[in-house]
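Hi there,

I know you've been waiting on this one. I reran it after we fixed the sequence typo, so this is the corrected version. Both the input and the resulting structure follow.
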Amino acid sequence: MSDENENKEIKLRWYVVQAFSGYEKRVAQTLIEHIKIEGLEEFFGEILVPTEEVVEMRAGQKRKSERKFFPGYVLVQMDMNDASWHLVNSTERVMGFIGGTSDRPAPISPKEADRILNRLQENAEAPKPATLFEPGEVVRVTDGPFADFSGVVEEVDYEKSRVKVSVLIFGRSTPVELEFGQVEQDK
């Protein structure tokens, strides 16, 4: 290694790259391949497509699926220099960097990067429901003894994936606690 390279400290920062919507994973994979081909591994860290696992009920079955929480964006940890900038910008289906100017992109703040990474970590530990309920919302019970009844959401417990619904039974409002999978938003 020459003295010139030793003086230049490589500092990896997080940058947001805009990709064609629906091609985020392909862009991330292509970047990883091009980095290896060009031998620029030292200038790059992680490349992430921020997704979260969601649980939804389909045909009475709990199904897990992935949902992007920043559709159209890929997070790239890199040292910004001419070679790394050119590699990212010349990748197919990349529209450019977000932040800064087109020739001098700005990294996101370490605080913002930590917030995104923590959200990824939290979600890996506990998947979120695909449908979010709010108090006051009208829902229809789809499963259990109160199937086909409609009611109003009183409380939502995302920790336990349960919802308290006020259902009208024999002309009286009765609170019923149900799992997310037993109710759906009334259309």
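Quick highlight: Residues 54 and 65 are 5 Å apart (CA to CA).

Best,
R. S.
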